[in-house]
Design goal:
Protein name: Lipocalin-like domain-containing protein
Pfam family, one: Lipocalin_5
CATH class: Mainly Beta
Structural class: mainly beta
Number of strands: 10
Distance between the termini: 26 Å
Radius of gyration: 16 Å
CATH topology: Lipocalin
Largest sheet: 8 strands, antiparallel, barrel
Strand content: over 45%
CATH architecture: Beta Barrel
Organism: Actinacidiphila guanduensis
Strand order of the largest sheet: 1-3-4-5-6-8-9-10
InterPro entries: Lipocalin-like
Length: about 140
């Protein structure tokens, strides 16, 4: 039987990203048609990128020159981070050791995620305390390219 680490290696495309609030409300923070990829490499690195659809293009057509509104819309509809990863096979969890991130607060942290694998779906959710909101990100194995 393959380990979790062996089974997650490769590229996965975002299927859904939802947050369930403590009051039961479920929302999609990047919208219902969010897109993205998470990639786990055999040498122990990962990269995750998710974005909202329909983010407005910059008027300047130069990614270094955007208005405050353009920058806010671009960053507010995007999540990206990368770094080494490790898997705790007994607990069924993995850690993303964040080296680079669009969200600076995560740099140097380890994002711990519960792993659930069913067929070609990989579900990741943070290890939460009771009463906290529950984020669930579901990825579908990307086809060979």
């Amino acid at each position: 039987m393959q380990t979790y680490r062996e089974r997650i290696i490769g590229a996965w495309r975002l299927a859904s990203y939802t947050i369930e609030e403590p009051d039961g409300e479920v929302r999609a923070p990047l919208g219902p048609n969010a897109d993205g990829f998470i990639i786990y490499s055999p040498d122990g690195y990962m990269s995750a990128q998710m974005m909202a659809q329909g983010r407005p293009a910059y008027a300047s057509d130069d990614w270094l020159i955007g208005s405050d509104e353009e920058l806010r819309a671009a960053a507010g509809g995007y999540l990206a981070y990368s770094g080494p990863f490790s898997v705790d096979e007994e607990k069924g969890t993995l850690q993303h050791h964040v080296t680079v991130s669009l969200f600076p607060n995560w740099i140097g942290d380890a994002q711990v995620r519960r792993i659930k694998l069913e067929g070609d779906l990989l579900s990741l959710s943070p290890v939460n305390e009771p009463g906290e909101r529950i984020q669930t990100i579901v990825w579908r194995r990307a086809p060979q390219h």
